[in-house]
TrEMBL record:
Name of the protein in question: Ribose-5-phosphate isomerase
Entries under Gene3D superfamilies matching the protein: 3.30.70.260, 3.40.50.1360
Domain of life: Eukaryota
InterPro entries named among the record's database cross-references: NagB/RpiA_transferase-like (IPR037171), Ribose5P_isomerase_type_A (IPR004788)
Catalytic activity: aldehydo-D-ribose 5-phosphate = D-ribulose 5-phosphate
Molecular-function GO terms, alphabetical: ribose-5-phosphate isomerase activity
Taxon lineage: Eukaryota, Fungi, Dikarya, Ascomycota, Saccharomycotina
Family: Belongs to the ribose 5-phosphate isomerase family.
PANTHER family, A to Z: RIBOSE-5-PHOSPHATE ISOMERASE (PTHR11934:SF0)
GO cellular component: cytoplasm
Source species of the chain: Kluyveromyces dobzhanskii CBS 2104
Keyword Isomerase part of the UniProt annotation: yes
Pathway given in the UniProt record: Carbohydrate degradation; pentose phosphate pathway; D-ribose 5-phosphate from D-ribulose 5-phosphate (non-oxidative stage): step 1/1
């Protein structure tokens, strides 16, 4: 079946969703090569929903690409769009990966982990030859990370270490504030990740040197991974609700 013509997409009731969809569809169409890309990473979040939807349109009897999830939600997206599901253990080399972001700076450094999937997202994206970001235009930072995303850097930690990591973030790395992410009305107590860990959100204000901050956090005992994605993405697609897309690349 031919791909849906982008100019003939049925309108969505929410403008922000239109922005996400156009960014995702354009990113897939302009970067995914169905002939050569056999292993495709599918990230997590609300924008990637449209990546999976568009990839689903490429499936026919002549295609044989496998999709690698970055967590439970991502696995569901792959299955529900009738894409072939694989694992990073089976396919440690990924041809291309698509994912959302919480903030993207001028150098394509990222904050991710707003959806608590950062470890598997980093495992898959850093195993990919090409990593493409899909987002609505609110995610584009005017300068430094931390300008738009005020919730802090997500950090996945081993549960038993959370008290120690909170103290180290404040005493050794002078973060402004840090707390374990709570499930809110959806769950009493902390959010538990797909890897059975906790997430700490640590506010460092605007981050002038995300590489150094990532390295410093990573050295703390108990830290599994940080939501700072350094030198990983090669292109970002930022959608607007009027159907335009801004592309940022190095
Ligand atoms: O990092 C993530 C999940 O851990 C998401 O990619 C990020 O939060 C962006 O999500 P959305 O597309 O819903 O804005």
């Amino acid at each position: 079946m031919p791909l849906t013509d982008l100019s003939k997409l049925p309108p969505l009731p929410i403008p922000l969703e239109q922005a996400k969809r156009i960014a995702a569809y354009r990113a897939v169409d302009e970067n995914f090569d169905v002939k050569t890309h056999k292993v495709v990473g599918v990230g997590s979040g609300t924008t990637v929903v449209y990546v999976a939807e568009r990839l689903g349109e490429y499936v026919d009897k002549n295609t044989n690409f496998v999709c690698i999830p970055t967590g439970f939600q991502s696995k569901q997206l792959i299955v529900s769009n009738k894409l072939q599901l694989g694992s990073i253990e089976q396919y440690p080399e990924v041809d291309i990966a698509f994912d959302g972001a919480d903030e993207v700076d001028e150098s394509l450094q990222l904050i991710k982990g707003g959806g608590a999937c950062l470890f598997q997202e980093k495992l898959v994206s850093s195993s990919a030859k090409k990593f493409i970001i899909v987002a609505d235009s609110r995610k584009k930072s005017p300068k430094y990370l931390g300008y738009n995303w005020k919730k802090g850097v997500p950090i996945e930690v081993v549960p038993s270490s959370y008290v120690r990591v909170l103290a180290d973030l404040q005493n050794k790395l002078q973060c402004k504030s840090a707390s374990v992410r709570e499930g809110g009305s959806a769950k009493a107590g902390p959010v538990v990740t797909d890897n059975s860990n906790f997430i700490i959100d640590a506010d460092f204000g605007e981050i002038a040197d995300p590489r150094k901050l990532h390295q410093d956090i990573k050295l703390l005992v108990g830290v599994v991974e940080t939501g700072l994605f350094i030198d990983n993405a090669e292109k970002a697609y930022f959608g607007n609700s009027d159907g335009t897309v801004q592309i940022q690349q190095l």
